[in-house]
Each structure stands twice: as structure tokens, then as C-alpha cells.
């Protein structure tokens, strides 16, 4: 009897099961033909960011909504594959797209938790979801996910599926794929990952924001430990390896993407240019742009600029802490909160003061406490005085900068307020070898090389002198270095009583000597003689905007506006013997398949279309600018031990801008230092003091092993003996002249050979 009662419900359940199976089969028949094609997987082409490189192939920038580096499965280390399988899908190589054991486990969990949905996604199902479906948790979406998983498994091998997953999955911080995540979080390639680091990355797909080691280090550690335990349970790690991985701290890279070369300003220039050309594809097509930068030059320029700025900053004293944070309670969390808005600037590290007195300062950063004492306090000694105003005093909760020297000693430092710019150009073809647009791109993205319109000061005088040579002046022309008073209509303003920088006047001196010692009165008299309108027209030959240099006598002292980029282009005229060379930064653009889309087509020096001044003019200007280095305001550059250097210091009124604009025949380099909101640099911060050392430090590296190059004497140049008694030059010395401008009664010696030695092959 009881068997009869038992048979009835069993039959009912069986019938329901059969009906359910029939309905399910019918649903499958309807749904399967409507599944999307998996061709996008078989021809996998993910969004690849724009990448920018130096000429020698060093990555300097990456731009895209998705940070991604596509890798082949063969390049993925075993430890990472094992960590992924342990965290996400241990039976990946056994199932056919759906892990039925996992499904049963999830179903039980969902029932026991009152209907709260829990997934049981395999790696294949995650690939299906990421490519074709939404992330909503509905029965319909789950059905399609399962069916797509079957279809993917039927069309692709297991290794193909895993490769797609490893390259496609989102892992936080805009990183898509494990190769990108390894760089973003650990600044490492996949093959350099440890088991501990692999476990951190493998734990991210479950919840990239929750387990992000940058944002939530404690939760990331918990997830990592879970993955490591699973790796041990599956036999991927032994006990010793597990113990070693568990005890290692998670050390992540907290700042932005780091590159071997600091060339952020150039990378951003390239990004803007590519966006104008390919606005819809720039961040996804995998463009590779090779710039003209040289790694060694760029590193030298970065080091020289940074040293120059920091030296200037230390000369002007400590300004006080960057901010203050109320540390009600101690502990890492409180200190982390204090430093949240302060990023490091290379070796200038942000730290929060835990304790401070006149003899010792204790600071905290990234879980470590550092003690600064002795010489490390000297720079900021006055800020430790109890009498110092609270807003300027180093005390508990103060945010300061610390710096470590070569001997591993810590000292108090600060972020400079002053800015800098340096551009170096190959004068033979215009390729930019180095470009520094400011002290720190992450602190100030304003590119001072291309965007900062500043007064050039005395570095502009050579263009006035060049104009004067065309009006019959010669390097030996005598001009009176004496005070002048200029009427308002000649200045475009008030009565002008200019002075020489040192307020000293030498009376009648030659034009050569006047340029070497940057005599303001002589420059004004020259401009007055040749005419301001003529000079304004003439300077446009060098690439200057005439409307930014009003035709007044103030033009003689560089009162107009230029950018360092313009100055580099202008000085190529003197370096090349009269040719204006256009600087450029993009060497070539390549797509994701290696096709060259565009290449730089520079016109080299020597092309007749580029000649803008008489070769004799360029020769005489080069000769005079060499004297600026040999015996004039830039004499400090003689420390480089070369005889082929030329240039001009530049200091604007009230010491607002400091310049050195100089060259060796193969390289033009421009160095500038000043504040974004123009104000006095203070002290004796002339171009020779503040900017020239930057130029020297850069050129010392750039010209290493480069032979000296001397310009040939062009046809039509003659020499004659001149007397410069009382003119800071030897009596009866030889001087160069245009043949038609030879002084009366001077014995001419035609020159058609070389000034010193034969020109050598350009570097």
C-alpha cells in the first residue's frame, strides 16, 4: 500500500521534470540560433592604448581609456596561471564551459541565503559575459551566459580562452588584462611577478574595487591570503613557498605610471597632436609614436634642469610646510589620510611629521618612520624654532618633503615654486633631442617650452646685432657705452632711463665687446641707429612674431615675448650658418600591425629654401657669440673645455626671467628659469647664475665624445688689423669684416678658407 502512495509523488515529480526538461530543450532550440557570433573572439582585437617612445625605443607615455598590453599565452608565467585558476576556476581544463559542481554549490548558497544570488562563473563564462552580455544577475542573462560558454568552448581551445581572459579582464586602475595590471600595481612585467604578487592580481577579478591594493590594502591582503591558500591546496605551492609568500608585504606603486625616462611633457605633446589627427581612434587603435628624443639626452636634460631648480630653491631658503593635518590619533590609517592628497615628486618624498623639536624630526610615510637630525635639519632650521609662526613651523601634523642623499642620510627638502624649461635641438635637421617643460609634470602640466610667452631679455640682443650687420655695422664698430634718456614716443610709454645691469659704463667700445659683456646702452644705440621698424621686420626671418615685438627701443633689451621653442628655432640660424631649421618631435607613427602611417620629413640645413640670412652675417654673429662664452657673461661655460661653444645670457628687467641660449654647431640648447606668475627671482639671479649652469650640465653630457666643429669662413669675409685700446681687447688684433664694409685704410686679407680648422662630420 505504502509503495502505491510513494509511487504517485515520484511520478508527479518525474512528470514535472520531463516537462521542465522539454521546456528547457525548447528554450535552448529557440535561444541557441540567436546567440551572437564568436568571430570577435577568434579575431581578438582589444582596445590598445596610444604609446609614445623615444627614438631609441624607450616607452615614455601611454594614453587610453584602457591600460592594456596584449600577451600570448606562452609568455604568461606558470605561477600567474596557477594563481588565476586557484582564484577563479580550478577545474578550467576539465569542464566544458560550465562547472556543475560549482553550480550546485552556488545553488545551495542561494537557497540558504534567502534568494541572494551568488554566481558560479567559470573563466569561459566570464569571457562570454565580458564580450557579449551585461552584468545584471537575471535567469535569462545567466542562461545566455551558459549557452555562450558552450559555444565558445566548441570554437576555441582552452589556451585560447585563457589567453583572451588574461588580456581582457578588468582589474582596476583602468588596467585591462594582467600584463597591464602588473605594470600599474607593481611596475613589473609578467615574468618578474612573485607568487605573492600573482596572488594579489588573481584576486582582483572577483571585485576590482574592493580588493584594489592601492585603495584597500587590508582587504587586498585578505584576498591574497585566500588565493595563496587555494594554491597550496591545489599543489601549486609547497608549505615553504606558502609561508614565504604569506609574510611578504604588498608593496604597490601608488603614483602614476612610471617610465625609464622623464619625458611627460613630450608625451603629452604627442597625445594632443595624435588626437587632432585621429580623434576617434587615438586611444584604442594601438598607435605607436616614435619621437626624436634620445634617452641619454632626455635623462641629462631632466637631471640638469632639476638640479638647477633645486640649487636655486636652496639659495632662497625654506618656506615652510606644505600643509597641516590634525592627527587626533596615531596609527597608519591617520597618517595615510594625512598624505592622501600629496604625491611624491621623484626623490622629493611627501611625509607627515609625527614629532618635531630643534634636534630631531620624526616623520612617517608608507608604513615607515624616519628620523632626521644633524645636517639634515639645517635647511629648515628656522622652521623648528618655537618662535616661528605656527603656519611656518614644522610641528606634529605638518606635511613636509624629505630627501635621501647618496649616503642614505635623510634631510628636509621642499617642492620648488620656481619653474624651468629646456629644449635641445639637432641643428642639422631640427629633431628635438631633449625637452623639459617644467620642474614636474605631475605637479604642473603647463609646458613652458611651447606655451610660456616670456621676455627674452638680453638673449634677444644677437638678433638686433645681426640686423645691424646688414646696415653696415661691423664687430669692430665703436659705440658709446654711456647712459641715455629715451623719449616716451620711442618706448611706447613713459620716459625711459635704462641702465647697464651693473650700473657701470665703459665709454666707447666695439660692438664685439658690447655683446660679450651684454651692454644695454650699446644695444639701444644700435637699434636707434638702424631703426625700430627695420629691426621688427628683420627679426621675423628667425621665426619670431613681429607683433609680439613692438617697434620701440625697448626691443633692444628683449622686452617682447618669445617661447623657448621659438628661441631654439631662432638660434639654429646662427648655428647652421644662416639656415632656419624647424624643430620637430615626431619621427614616425606606426599602427598596431606595424604599418607606418606617417614619418617626419625634415628639410636639412643646407637646403637653399631654408636660408634666411647671409652666411657672412651668421659667421660674424657666431664669432661674437663665441666671445660671450670665452670672455664675456657666459665665461663659466669654459669649464666644458671646448672652443666651439657660443651663446648669450639673458636677464630681464628686475630679474624676472633668467635665460641661457647657446649652441655648439650640432646642438642648440635653450635653458630658462622663472616663476609662472612673473616676479623677481631675487638676489643676483641673472641668466649666468640661474640658467647657464643648467645649460652647462646638460651640454656636458650631450657633447660627451663629440668632436669640436668649427664653421668655415664664407666667401666675402676678410680680416683686418684693428686697434681696441681701452676696449678690453688686445691692441692690433685681427677682426672679421664683410669685404664691402672694411674700414678705410685697413689692410684687407681675403678669407675663403677656415677660421681655425676644417669642419668635421656633424655628430
Largest sheet: 6 strands, antiparallel
Architecture of one domain in CATH?
Orthogonal Bundle
Oligomer: single chain
Q: Output the CATH homologous superfamily of one domain.
A: Biosynthetic peptidoglycan transglycosylase-like
Helix content: 25-40%
Name the average pLDDT: 87
What class do helices, strands and sheet pairing give?
alpha+beta
| CA-based gyration radius | 35 Å
Q: N- to C-terminal separation? A: 107 Å
Percentage of residues in DSSP E strands? 15-25%
The low-confidence runs, each spanning 5 or more residues with pLDDT under 50, are 752-763
Q: What's the CATH topology name of one domain?
A: Penicillin binding protein transpeptidase fold
The count of β-strands is 23
The coarse silhouette is elongated
- Total number of helical segments? 21
Name of the level-1 CATH class of one domain: Mainly Alpha
Please give a structural write-up.
Among the domains are: 66-247, Biosynthetic peptidoglycan transglycosylase-like (Penicillin binding protein transpeptidase fold, Orthogonal Bundle), CATH 1.10.3810; 289-419, OB fold (Dihydrolipoamide Acetyltransferase, E2P), CATH 2.40.50; 717-751, no CATH class. It is built from 21 helices and 23 strands. Strand 1 (50-53) and strand 2 form a beta hairpin. The longest helix has 30 residues, at 2-31. The radius of gyration is 35 Å and the shape is elongated.
Amino acid at each position: 500500500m505504502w509503495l502505491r502512495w510513494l509511487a504517485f509523488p515520484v511520478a508527479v515529480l518525474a512528470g514535472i521534470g520531463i516537462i521542465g526538461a522539454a521546456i528547457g530543450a525548447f528554450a535552448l532550440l529557440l535561444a541557441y540560433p540567436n546567440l551572437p557570433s564568436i568571430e570577435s573572439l577568434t579575431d581578438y582585437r582589444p582596445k590598445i592604448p596610444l604609446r609614445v617612445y623615444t627614438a631609441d625605443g624607450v616607452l615614455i607615455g601611454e594614453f587610453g581609456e584602457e591600460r592594456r598590453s596584449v600577451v600570448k599565452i606562452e609568455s604568461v608565467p606558470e605561477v600567474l596561471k596557477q594563481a588565476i585558476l586557484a582564484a577563479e576556476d580550478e577545474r578550467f581544463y576539465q569542464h566544458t564551459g560550465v562547472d556543475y559542481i560549482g553550480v550546485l554549490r552556488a545553488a545551495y548558497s542561494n537557497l540558504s541565503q534567502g534568494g541572494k544570488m551568488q554566481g558560479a562563473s567559470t573563466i569561459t563564462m566570464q569571457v562570454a559575459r565580458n564580450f557579449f552580455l551585461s552584468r545584471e544577475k537575471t535567469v535569462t542573462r545567466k542562461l545566455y551566459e551558459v549557452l555562450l560558454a558552450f559555444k565558445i568552448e566548441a570554437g576555441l581551445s582552452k589556451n585560447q580562452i585563457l589567453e583572451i581572459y588574461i588580456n581582457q579582464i578588468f582589474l582596476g586602475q583602468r588596467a585591462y588584462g594582467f600584463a597591464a595590471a602588473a605594470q600599474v600595481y607593481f611596475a613589473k612585467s609578467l615574468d618578474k611577478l612573485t607568487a605573492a604578487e600573482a596572488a594579489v592580481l588573481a584576486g582582483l577579478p572577483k571585485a576590482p574595487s574592493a580588493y584594489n591594493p592601492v585603495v584597500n590594502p587590508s582587504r587586498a591582503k585578505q584576498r591574497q591570503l585566500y588565493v595563496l591558500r587555494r594554491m597550496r591546496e591545489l599543489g601549486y605551492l609547497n608549505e615553504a613557498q606558502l609561508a614565504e609568500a604569506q609574510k611578504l608585504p604588498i608593496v604597490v606603486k601608488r603614483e602614476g605610471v612610471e617610465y625609464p625616462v622623464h619625458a611627460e611633457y613630450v608625451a603629452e605633446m604627442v597625445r594632443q597632436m595624435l588626437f587632432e589627427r585621429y580623434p576617434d581612434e587615438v586611444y584604442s587603435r594601438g598607435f605607436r609614436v616614435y619621437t626624436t628624443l634620445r634617452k641619454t639626452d632626455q635623462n641629462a636634460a631632466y637631471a640638469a634642469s632639476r638640479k638647477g631648480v633645486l640649487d636655486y630653491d636652496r639659495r632662497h631658503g625654506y618656506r615652510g610646510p606644505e600643509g597641516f593635518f590634525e592627527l587626533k590619533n596615531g596609527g597608519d590609517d591617520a597618517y595615510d589620510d594625512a598624505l592622501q592628497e600629496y604625491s611624491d615628486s621623484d626623490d622629493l618624498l611627501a611625509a607627515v611629521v609625527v614629532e618635531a623639536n630643534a634636534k630631531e624630526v620624526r616623520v612617517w610615510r608608507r608604513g615607515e618612520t624616519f628620523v632626521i637630525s644633524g645636517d639634515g635639519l639645517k635647511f629648515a632650521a628656522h622652521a623648528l624654532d618655537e618662535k616661528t609662526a605656527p603656519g611656518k613651523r614644522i610641528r606634529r601634523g605638518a606635511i613636509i618633503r624629505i630627501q635621501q642623499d647618496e649616503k642614505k642620510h635623510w634631510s628636509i627638502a621642499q617642492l620648488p615654486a620656481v619653474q624651468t624649461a629646456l629644449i635641445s635641438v639637432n641643428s642639422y635637421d631640427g629633431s628635438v633631442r631633449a625637452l623639459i617643460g617644467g620642474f614636474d609634470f605631475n605637479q604642473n602640466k603647463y609646458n613652458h617650452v611651447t606655451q610660456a610667452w616670456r621676455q627674452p631679455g638680453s638673449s634677444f640682443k644677437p638678433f638686433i646685432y645681426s640686423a645691424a650687420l646688414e646696415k653696415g655695422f661691423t664687430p669692430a664698430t665703436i659705440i658709446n657705452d654711456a647712459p641715455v634718456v629715451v623719449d616716451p614716443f620711442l618706448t611706447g610709454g613713459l620716459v625711459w632711463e635704462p641702465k647697464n645691469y651693473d650700473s657701470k659704463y665703459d665709454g666707447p667700445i666695439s660692438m664685439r665687446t658690447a655683446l660679450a659683456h651684454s651692454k644695454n646702452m650699446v644695444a639701444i644705440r644700435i637699434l636707434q641707429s638702424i631703426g625700430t621698424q627695420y629691426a621688427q621686420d628683420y627679426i621675423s626671418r628667425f621665426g619670431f612674431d613681429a607683433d609680439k615685438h613692438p617697434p620701440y627701443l625697448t626691443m633692444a633689451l628683449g622686452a617682447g615675448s618669445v617661447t623657448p621653442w621659438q628661441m631654439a628655432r631662432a638660434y639654429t640660424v646662427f648655428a647652421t650658418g644662416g639656415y632656419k631649421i624647424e624643430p620637430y618631435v615626431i619621427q614616425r607613427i606606426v599602427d598596431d600591425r606595424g604599418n607606418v602611417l606617417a614619418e617626419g620629413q625634415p628639410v636639412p640645413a643646407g637646403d637653399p629654401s631654408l636660408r634666411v640670412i647671409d652666411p657672412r652675417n651668421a659667421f660674424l654673429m657666431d664669432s661674437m657669440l663665441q666671445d660671450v662664452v670665452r670672455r664675456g657673461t657666459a665665461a663659466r661655460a669654459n669649464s666644458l673645455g671646448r672652443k666651439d661653444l657660443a651663446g648669450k645670457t639673458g636677464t630681464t628687467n628686475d630679474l624676472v626671467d633668467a635665460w641661457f641660449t647657446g649652441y655648439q654647431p650640432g646642438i642648440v640648447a635653450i635653458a630658462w628659469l622663472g616663476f609662472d606668475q612673473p616676479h623677481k627671482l631675487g638676489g643676483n639671479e641673472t641668466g649666468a647664475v640661474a640658467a647657464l649652469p643648467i645649460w652647462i650640465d646638460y651640454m656636458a653630457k650631450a657633447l660627451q665624445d663629440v668632436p669640436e666643429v668649427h664653421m668655415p669662413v664664407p666667401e666675402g669675409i676678410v680680416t683686418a688689423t684693428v686697434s681696441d685700446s681701452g676696449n678690453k681687447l688686445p691692441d692690433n688684433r685681427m677682426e672679421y669684416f664683410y669685404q664691402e664694409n672694411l674700414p678705410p685704410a685697413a689692410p684687407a686679407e681675403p678669407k675663403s678658407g677656415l677660421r681655425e680648422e676644417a669642419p668635421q662630420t656633424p655628430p
